[in-house]
């Protein structure tokens, strides 16, 4: 196992905790009440007049819902060792996790599902996803496919997405929220890359006899001459104790209309 954290060089834990508190829009008093402390002590910690214990750093991070990687950064800034390991996904210690994720997304078939890491590298995908990726060039599929590139690159799925501008806006907003929570140069570089891709005009389509009513923004994508509609859901692990596990996300695509569900069912076998 390896441990990686991204503490800001030369910056104490106080300013970092204050930044997280302000980001969460929580007053010193409210945070103190939640953490069984006092507003005075929180103030002293944030200004550097008091050094918090390791337990206090973890408690405050928990009440501020700080991501696991950033909790390690807070500990380092306070002068303590990182608390959460970062285990490579290929490590035998995560065999059961990988097997469970594979079984989960395979059980979701024929509907598409995939697993991505913190920078949207695809670490597992089922046959529903592979079906949608038919015709995508190998240059986007190897050596490690990236979900954002696959979706937004002009040689990827972008030309097939009927509501590309809406779906692109949704994905970029999602990345912006993640960048606000994680000091990740790799994630920011990916965002700048995919945001710069050219955006073709949305494909016109005939109005259906009865306009569809969606309960969430759909992904409307062409496949073999028909338009399939999906709504997506993202799941993460509850109370992760490892940086790698904390940054994994399982995205599933649910048919947004009966026609899409019927077509996917016809592909089973």
TrEMBL record:
What SUPFAM superfamilies does this protein's entry cite? lambda repressor-like DNA-binding domains
- Kindly name one Pfam family recorded for this protein: MLTR_LBD
Q: What is this protein called?
A: Transcriptional regulator
**What does the record give as the organism's lineage?**
Bacteria, Bacillati, Actinomycetota, Actinomycetes, Kitasatosporales
Coiled-coil spans are none
GO terms of molecular function: DNA binding
The record places domain HTH cro/C1-type at 17-71
């Amino acid at each position: 196992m390896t441990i990686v954290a991204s503490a800001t060089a030369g910056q104490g834990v106080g300013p970092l905790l204050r930044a997280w508190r302000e980001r969460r829009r929580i007053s010193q008093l409210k945070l103190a009440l939640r953490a069984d402390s006092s507003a005075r002590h929180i103030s002293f910690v944030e200004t550097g007049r008091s050094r918090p214990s390791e337990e206090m750093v973890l408690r405050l991070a928990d009440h501020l819902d700080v991501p696991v990687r950033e909790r390690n950064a807070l500990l380092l800034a306070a002068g303590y060792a990182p608390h959460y390991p970062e285990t490579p996904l290929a490590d035998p210690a995560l065999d059961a996790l990988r097997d469970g994720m594979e079984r989960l997304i395979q059980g979701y078939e024929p509907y598409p599902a995939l697993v991505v890491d913190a920078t949207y590298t695809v670490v597992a995908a089922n046959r529903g996803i592979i079906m949608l990726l038919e015709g995508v060039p190998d240059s986007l599929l190897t050596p490690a496919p990236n979900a954002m590139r696959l979706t937004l690159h002009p040689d990827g799925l972008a030309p097939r997405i009927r509501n590309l501008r809406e779906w692109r806006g949704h994905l970029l907003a999602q990345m912006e929220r993640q960048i606000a929570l994680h000091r990740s140069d790799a994630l920011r570089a990916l965002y700048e890359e995919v945001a710069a891709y050219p955006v073709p005009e949305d494909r016109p389509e005939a109005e259906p006899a009865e306009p569809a009513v969606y309960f969430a923004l759909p992904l409307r994508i062409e496949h073999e001459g028909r338009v399939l509609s999906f709504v997506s859901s993202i799941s993460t692990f509850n109370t992760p104790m490892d940086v790698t596990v904390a940054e994994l996300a399982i995205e599933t695509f649910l048919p947004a209309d009966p026609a899409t569900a019927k077509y996917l069912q016809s592909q089973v076998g």
